[in-house]
Design brief:
alpha+beta; seven-stranded mixed beta sheet; 2 helices
Length: 130
């Protein structure tokens, strides 16, 4: 089974967290699910470099990474993944949606209202613990 290594940003601005809705993709079970933005780590990159690159490519967004948040291992039907998440501060709420279907800036107590991709659920749960 294929294994991927990905990064995700828990991006905050003015007390709200950025939530991105995936577009239709290769796998129906994650299409139109909500996620924390990020993507695959390329060879030779640190996790932080990968996150900054992915956010620039997918959203034309620059962030300050303020720290490691949570590592998640998840098994989907067609692949397994390790996702490394980081807390980030957005310099602005402005960005472009180059690959996602929709977005929302939500208060922490609103996060559970979304249909999250299964690998992102542990991150949501840890945010809600605080």
């Amino acid at each position: 089974m294929k294994h991927i290594e990905v990064v995700a940003g828990v991006i905050e601005h003015d007390g709200k967290i950025l939530c991105m809705e995936r577009d239709q993709g290769k796998y129906d079970y994650v299409s139109f699910k909500w996620e924390f933005p990020g993507g695959k780590i390329e060879e030779g990159e640190t996790k932080e470099e990968a996150l900054k690159r992915e956010l620039r490519e997918e959203m034309e967004m620059d962030v300050d990474i303020t720290g490691h948040f949570l590592d998640v291992y998840h098994e989907y039907p067609d692949f397994t993944m390790n996702m490394y998440s980081f807390r980030c501060k957005a310099k602005s709420k402005e960005f472009k949606m180059n690959v996602h279907h929709d977005f929302k800036w939500l208060d922490v107590n609103e996060l559970e209202t979304l249909d999250w991709a299964p690998a992102d659920v542990p991150i949501v749960k840890k945010i809600l613990e605080k």
